[in-house]
Amino acid sequence: MLKEILRFELAYRKKRSATYIYFAILFLMSFFAVTSKYIVIGGVAGGQIVENSPYNLSFMTVIMTFAMTFIVSAIMGVPVLRDFDHKTDSMLFTTPVSKFAYLFGRFFGSFVVTVLVFSAVWVAFMLGFAVGKYLPWEPSWAAKEMLPFNFWHYIQPFLTLGITNLFIQAALYFAAGTLSRQTIVIYVQGIVLLVLYQIADTVLEDIDNKTLAAMLDPFGFRAFQIYTEYWSPAQKNSQLVPLEGVLLWNRLLWLGLAGLILAGTYFGFSFSVVRKGWRKAKAAVAEKVTFKPENVRIPTVRQVLNAGSYLTMLWQQAKFYFKITTRDVPFIGIVAVGLINLIVSSFYFGEMYGTGSYPITANVLGLLDEFDLFFLIIVIFYSGELIWRERSVNMNLIMDALPVPDWVNLVAKFIGLVMVYVLLLLVLIVMGMGVQAAHGYFNFEIPLYVKSLFTSTLFFLVAYTLLAFFIQVMANDKFIGYGLMFVFFIVTFTIGAMGVSHPMFMFNSGNLGDYSDMNRYGHFVARFSWLKFYWFTFVCILFSLSVVFAVRGSEAVMRTRLRLGRLRLTRPLVTFALTTIIAFTGTGFYVYYNTNQLNKYRTQEEGEQWAVDYEKTLKKFNHLPQPKIVESNLRVELYPDERDFTAEGYFWLKNKTEQPLADVHIQEDILNDVQTEYLRFGNGDAQVKQRWEKYGYTIYTLAQPLAPGDSVKMDFKVNFTTRGFTAGGGNTSIVQNGTFFNNTYFPSIGYAEAAELGDDDLRRKYKLPEKERMMEQTDPRGLSQSLFGDDADYIRFQMIIGTSPDQIAIAPGYLQKEWEEKGRKYYHYQMDIPMVNFYSIVSARYEVKRDQWKSADGQVVNLEIYYNKGHEYNLEQMMTSAKKSLGYFSANFSPYQFRQLRIMEFPRYASFAQSFANTVPFSEGIGFIQKVSNPEKDLDMPYYVTAHEIGHQWWGHQVPEASVKGNAMLSETQAQYSALMVMKHSFTPELMQKFLKYEVDKYLQGRAMERKKEQPLVLVEGQGYIHYNKGSVIMYALQDYIGEANVNTALRNFLADWQYPGPDSKPGRYPTSRDLLGYFRAETPDSLQYLIDDWFEHITLYENKTTEATYVKQSDTKYEVTLKFSSEKYRADSAGNDTPQKLAEWIDVGVYGKDKADKDSLLYLQKHKITKQENVIKVSVPKVPTKAGIDPLNKLIDRHPDDNTKTVSQAETTS
Amino acid sequence: MQLVIENLNKTYSNGVQALKNISLTIDQGMFGLLGPNGAGKSSLMRTIATLQEPDSGSIQLGTINVLTQKDEVRKALGYLPQEFGVYPKVDAETLLSHLAVLKGITDKKERNETVKALLQKTNLYEARKKNLGGYSGGMKQRFGIAQALLANPKLIIVDEPTAGLDPAERNRFLNLLSEIGENTIVILSTHIVDDVKELCSDMAIINKGQVLYKGSPTQALAQIRGRVWEIRVPKAEVEVLRAQFNIISEKLVGGTPVLHVLADTEPGEGFVAVDGDLEDVYFSHIFGTAPVEA
């Protein structure tokens, strides 16, 4: 019987065209994903990771199971539901089919179909990679060496991740459809799945939650990612992702759940037509009948049909739709799920290294954005639902015969939904304030909530609703309508990926941008308003069409609708349509005028092409001998409200070469559209030799060649003018409140290599040769220039900045004078010692906190923090950090070179802090609003960031390094080390361990995603995961192994020899990482010299694991612990191929016991020499041991840090 | 006021010709539209109720062109479709009141009164607070009638209204219609002959999209007077008679087949002349004189 039902199900699906359409959609998506440049699934391949690597195939397979949810729900949700919908249930249930055969026949029949449909994915993958090279278009991997074909690479993920996921989804959808007998419950089910995935993502903000996150996600995607997170590119290219560890547990958990759900379905399903209601019907209250129907007279009523009554009808209908929507159980379900998701996220938002943020409204608004997905689901679903409302309950003929004008129906549905949205937005506001209150934050900015949610969010809802209405009306089939909406998103996404990204073509474009407490919504408002108006008129046109074509009556053939539509073209409707068309066209022209006439518009490809042309045309001038800037003296007039500035003044250029220089090459900042008003040399007698307008590149021939050692004055004026609004978000550096830009806006000298395309895949696309990221350490050109570029070594600096009277403007140097003139405020800064050619211009409405730091030998440094009012939270901590940092660095490295240190807050459009001479711009988004709720458990991020940036006053400003490989090991890694030392002397060891745990994690994740090649620390080429994260771990371990004092001695000696280096200095060049390494070696005992090689010169990974830990009590104060552990050491190459290394290591062995506060504390910690893989060590401790292991503090880089220690158990006594 | 239908034609996209050159003139009062399932009754009624477009022909309600001035028609219309549903989670009073607003009864007091009266009239008053999802088929049908009577319509179109009603309900409903029918055009479609017999002053029989007969029930009866013959035969002989005679109806009385034959003279032995009733008229048009399709 089961077989019969199964066969029937297969036969049914075989006849349905939908089955083939599903297959075709999946096939095409997958096929184009592997063969075209534009559709990308997952996006993990590229660079080193080959597109047909087993890892990428697995990744894409999992992602496709997400896309598959729609199809699974459509196939698996309905097999039983169908019988009820078609009312064949009574017929079927009276046949002698058993419940078991019926249910499982239907289930497995449909499941087989699901699996067959999904097989489109691997078929397409195989085919795509096989024929990709012969297609008329070029796959992104066309020029790349691919892995040879391996059938198992395609099938294994299909089995382990594909089919399991399908089964889990199938069970859930089948259960939902069968038990509820309602289509919508199936969808709500799908949403729950996605939310679980989302929540798994959220809890990952805390790295201690990895296992939980891996388990939570029903798709197994998180488990997959966590299982493979540290896989090197080489592993990804060669290894199949096995079903083990968290991945296996996740599969078992969810398959088990799916099995339970199926069993539950079997027992819960009642094999009868009539179901018992969930609740008992309310007993009807019998009323005494006091009339006879025959005697009742129907009163005569006035029928009012005019504009007024139409409005009444409209309102009546709108209220009605509002009510039926908000009382719909699935609606409540979707909203509840969405809110639960928000609540879960609210525990984690704004996290950095596990430390959260203050729930300022800007942050909470970001949190509430997570609800947008649910909004979108509600919009799409209920737009369809309402358009089909009357027809789905079969009341349409009654409703359609009522004297209600055509437009009232649609408008009422629209208003009803808008009322639903308004309600939800209010709920969100309450929710947001609830989250704030729960965090103990009571500064409720209700107007800000309203301003954001009732403009941007509400408009997004309105636009999509009207679009969905239009599609539903035209499609005239609810499910085709939903399908078309889905297609719409895919098409929008694809044309976006193909480079059509102009806001006039991206539906509902015009982001309001991030809210910044400093700059509020700033200049985004104008662009937002115009684009929203543009889209609003567009959806109004769609709406007019919807009114014309809406089905009324029993016929839905297009011919009839066209004929009827003509009758509906009433004067008001035509007026409305014409007005919106005119407004749409007008706004369109205005938007175009702004984005493409007033401003330059470049698609991404045009931008890339520009970089290619620039390189091809001007590369020949790279490294051309040029004079260097030795002085900068500018007057910058800032107009924050207009977002304009002008900069006028001069540079002094000096010929530091051995030969006379006739030509000077000037590069303007063309990408920021900075206009040069004039540029003169000396007396203005230089000639323009050649100019490339397109690249803002000009060669001037001086009147007389500049003799070696001579200087020439370069006078110039540049203007930055903001005109209208741009297609993109626009410039976020020069803003109304919180301007922060640097000297890259001013003319620079010679070819700008940074403008070239860097990514190898991209370079291949434009037939450019692959490119090294940095120069070799032996390259004299690299050694003669610092990380700040080849325009200058050190400069004399002064600057006058004019700004609005309510703002404070800041540049490096010391304030000389401050005055008002013509209603503007002026500040004159001058630096009294040479500084690097890198300076910031900052201006905002600031509050100032001042303090002082005095060094042991009496040096006084003024400390100032310029902050936005309301962001006082962490100022004290930042001040303390500044003092501690200046104290530690000047005592251990060298004296601080300035008399002042300023930290200035800038808007959250970027999240970093940056060190300039005696000034540190510091983003609003990090530090200022970070919340250290529990100083024992939370890392104080503002403290850390401040220390790091102050460290740069030494590492970068006292010692700018050569612009060659390994450079960031001198600046970033040492700033990181400096910060770690300040932290070490303020934080508990547990917090330090926590910080380092994040650093190891970030390093290991970073190397897993390396696109080109992983470098050892000493040759790092701009790879943040190496110079920050790995750098931290290595430097912390180094000071642990050779001693903090010795590391500091090395750094002090290095500074003594290399302070203010460069061609003019004693060494005649800038230092490299290997220079510093020499100083480290000098302080390292012979027995540990191997560490310098392992950690700096090579990529070394350890695998330490405790396998057994037991103890024997020998007396009350003596416990002997026996530890069995294994140690391995690997050396990785640039792709991540590991080679085992011989062991001769000193590694910590540690034993923990309970201290008085019942916390784990180390009873024993000693380095032992480890020379073999398997080891047994006995140590004695005075208290009962609890935990013990090898490298318990995770000082060494280990991909499995958690298995280093083990709980110690009492040994079986044999005596 | 008069409803004039001229040369109405309609072919659906699946090729079915639902209306073939239909012309009818309907006066105030009750008009019965008789025909078997699938005859085109609903198509015709939906077309009059502005819900469907004919391919050709015209419909005129007084001075209103029904096909183009739909809004005008809807003002005066009360329509009960053959099959309809309701919002299950809304109670009768609320939904009726809601529909009343949409019919243009904007005055709240008037609306409440009229809703109350209609609920009483259709005997739903006690169940007015009950969700419509819990209504029986008959109750739902009565609700449909109540809504069709909102705002004193001048043109009432009820499509198979008595289907699903028990005899008592059916009677009450027919009475209700007859009360209203005096100053109103009421078009009642049915395949139950008795509905028409009892109520209608005028009627039409349609089948396969064509009008087979129009006129008053009385005239119709006159047409067949003396031409209906009845015979009781054993089951085995039915086949033979079928081949031989123009049989307009067959039914079983006490287990024995009773056949009616239409003939101007006595068809043969065993036949007894009977007074034809409207049912015979109906069947005679459907099966008797109507040309058999090739």
From TrEMBL, chain A:
InterPro entries: Peptidase_M1_dom (IPR014782), Peptidase_M4/M1_CTD_sf (IPR027268). Pfam families: Peptidase_M1. Coiled coil: none annotated. Keywords: Membrane, Transmembrane, Transmembrane helix. Gene3D superfamilies: Neutral Protease Domain 2. Residues 880-1060 form the Peptidase M1 membrane alanine aminopeptidase domain. The keyword Glycoprotein does not apply. Residues 1206-1215 have a biased composition (Polar residues). GO terms for molecular function: metallopeptidase activity; zinc ion binding. Residues 1195-1215 are annotated as: Disordered. SUPFAM superfamilies: Metalloproteases ('zincins'), catalytic domain. The keyword Transmembrane helix applies. Residues 1196-1205 have a biased composition (Basic and acidic residues). The chain crosses the membrane at residues 20-45, 57-81, 102-131, 151-176, 183-200, 252-274, 329-349, 373-389, 410-433, 453-472, 479-500, 533-551, 572-593. This is ABC-type transport system involved in multi-copper enzyme maturation permease subunit.
From TrEMBL, chain B:
GO terms for molecular function: ATP binding; ATP hydrolysis activity. It comes from the Bacteria. Residues 3-233 form the ABC transporter domain. InterPro entries: AAA+_ATPase (IPR003593), ABC_transporter-like_ATP-bd (IPR003439), ABC_transporter-like_CS (IPR017871), P-loop_NTPase (IPR027417). Signal peptide: none annotated. Keywords: ATP-binding, Nucleotide-binding, Transport. Gene3D superfamilies: P-loop containing nucleotide triphosphate hydrolases. Pfam families: ABC_tran (PF00005). Belongs to the ABC transporter superfamily. This is ABC-type multidrug transport system ATPase subunit. The lineage of its organism: Bacteria, Pseudomonadati, Bacteroidota, Cytophagia, Cytophagales.
